[in-house]
């Protein structure tokens, strides 16, 4: 699935369930999120895999909207955006950011590890090539000398 399919499925799942403003806000949010993650080096597939099924995300949006409507209809003294909820949200956002940063670090170390391995193999190849050329340069004359010595011993 690509970004356009993801956004289409989300819009389709939200259509008729929530207002057009909510649909537009969510589509814009996820479009911007996907683009920003891709600018940070992730592939489109990685970002979409991380987000999951757009229908589940849409279901969450619908449920949140229903909860908002229910809360607006009741006369509750509690503010749904209390400091505790805000802190919980920020903590989850911070945890997500840390996981995203760790993912970047792991992929960076993986890339560095591959490059170092390739460099080491290249160095080993150069050393073996040098040793082989030196061995050939000395081995051929030594073999000729041994053959000549053997021939002279037979002649005597």
Automatic annotation (TrEMBL):
The keyword Membrane applies. Residues 67-87 are annotated as: Disordered. It comes from the Bacteria. The chain crosses the membrane at residues 108-128, 134-152. This is DUF1700 domain-containing protein. Keywords: Membrane, Transmembrane, Transmembrane helix.
């Amino acid at each position: 699935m690509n970004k356009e399919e993801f956004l289409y499925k989300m819009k389709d799942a939200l259509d008729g369930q929530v207002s057009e403003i909510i649909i537009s806000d969510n589509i814009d949010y996820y479009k911007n999120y996907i683009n920003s993650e891709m600018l940070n080096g992730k592939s489109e597939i990685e970002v979409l895999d991380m987000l999951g099924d757009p229908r589940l995300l849409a279901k969450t949006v619908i449920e949140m909207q229903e909860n908002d409507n229910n809360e607006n209809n009741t006369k509750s003294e509690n503010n749904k955006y209390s400091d505790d909820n805000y802190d919980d949200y920020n903590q989850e956002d911070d945890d997500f950011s840390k996981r995203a940063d760790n993912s970047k670090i792991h992929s960076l170390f993986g890339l560095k590890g591959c490059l170092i391995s390739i460099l080491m193999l290249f160095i080993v190849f150069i050393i073996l090539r040098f040793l082989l050329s030196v061995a050939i340069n000395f081995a051929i004359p030594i073999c000729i000398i041994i053959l000549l010595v053997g021939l002279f011993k037979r002649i005597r």
